[in-house]
Design goal:
- With 232 residues, the protein is α/β, with parallel strands linked by helices.
- It has one domain: Uracil-DNA glycosylase-like domain (Uracil-DNA Glycosylase, subunit E, 3-Layer(aba) Sandwich).
- Helix content is 49%, strand content 15%.
- The protein contains eleven helices and seven strands.
- The strands form two sheets. A four-stranded parallel sheet has the order 3-2-6-7, with helices on both faces.
- Helix 1 runs antiparallel to helix 3 (37-48).
- The protein starts with a helix and ends with a helix.
Length: 232
C-alpha cells in the first residue's frame, strides 16, 4: 500500500506547467529547475509522511525563490531543512522569513514530527512565478498579481488542488495562509468547486514577519488555536 510520502513525491514529479503566461512572467518549478529539490524533498517526505495518518491541507500562495524553490518543501528554506528537519542539503543556503516563522510555530505546536503527522503544507498554485524587477533582478511574483496571470493559470490551479485532495487529505477544513488576495481567491474557488466544507484563513507568515514581528507570539497562539480545534 502506498504512503503519503509515495503519493506526494509522485505528485511533485508530475508537476509541469505547459500553458501560456503573460509577457515577462516566468514559471518556477523547483523539481525541474535544480538538481537538488527533488532529492531533498523526497528525503523529507519519506521521513515525515511515510504513513497514512489523516492530515489536513494548508495552502499558501505559490512557491517563493528562497524557500520551497530551493528545497521543494513549502515554507521550508535550506536553513530549516538542515537545522530543524536534520536532512542533508547540498544546494545554496538561503533564508526565508516565512520559514523562520513557520518553524517557530511548529516547535510551539509540539515539534516537527507531531505537526507533520497532522498537517501538510503546500500552495494554491503549486508552482511559482518570477518577473524581472526594476533593478534587473528576478523577483517573486504571485498567481494573483495580475488578472491575466490568474486567468492563465486558473485551470492549472484547479487541476492540482484536485490532485492534492486525491492524495488522501481530509476535506472538512482547509487552512489558508493569507487573509487578503489568497483567501479571497480560495474562498471564491471553493464556493464554485466545493473542495472543502470550510476554509480557515490565517495571516500569511511573510506578513507577520515583515509587519507584525513584535507580536509574533500572538499570531503563533492564533495558529495553534486554529490547528488544535481542527484535530480535536
Amino acid at each position: 500500500m502506498s504512503t503519503f510520502a509515495d503519493r506526494i513525491i509522485a505528485f511533485n514529479k508530475q508537476l509541469e506547467y505547459t500553458g501560456s503566461l503573460p509577457p515577462g512572467v516566468s514559471i518556477m518549478n523547483p523539481f525541474r529547475d535544480n538538481d537538488f529539490a527533488m532529492d531533498v524533498s523526497s528525503l523529507f517526505y519519506r521521513k515525515y509522511y511515510n504513513d497514512n495518518h489523516p492530515r489536513h491541507l494548508i495552502l499558501g500562495i505559490n512557491p517563493g525563490r528562497f524557500g520551497s524553490a530551493m528545497t521543494g518543501v513549502s515554507f521550508t528554506d535550506p536553513k530549516r531543512m538542515i537545522n530543524q528537519c536534520h536532512i542533508p542539503y547540498t544546494g545554496p543556503i538561503t533564508h526565508e522569513p516565512s520559514s523562520e516563522y513557520v518553524y517557530d510555530m511548529i516547535n510551539a505546536f509540539g515539534g516537527i514530527a507531531e505537526f507533520y503527522q497532522q498537517f501538510y503544507i503546500h500552495s494554491v498554485c503549486p508552482l511559482g512565478f518570477t518577473i524581472t524587477g526594476p533593478k534587473g533582478k528576478e523577483v517573486n511574483y504571485n498567481y494573483y498579481d495580475t488578472p491575466e496571470l490568474t486567468k492563465a493559470v486558473y485551470p492549472f490551479i484547479i487541476e492540482n488542488i484536485e490532485k492534492q485532495i486525491a492524495l488522501g487529505f481530509q476535506t472538512d477544513i482547509c487552512f489558508c495562509f493569507g487573509t487578503g488576495k489568497n483567501e479571497a481567491f480560495l474562498r471564491k474557488l471553493n464556493d464554485e468547486k466545493k473542495f472543502f466544507k470550510k476554509v480557515v484563513a490565517l495571516e500569511h507568515p511573510r506578513f507577520i514577519m515583515q509587519y507584525k514581528s513584535k507580536t509574533k507570539q500572538d499570531y503563533i497562539a492564533k495558529y495553534l488555536n486554529a490547528f488544535t480545534e481542527a484535530i480535536i
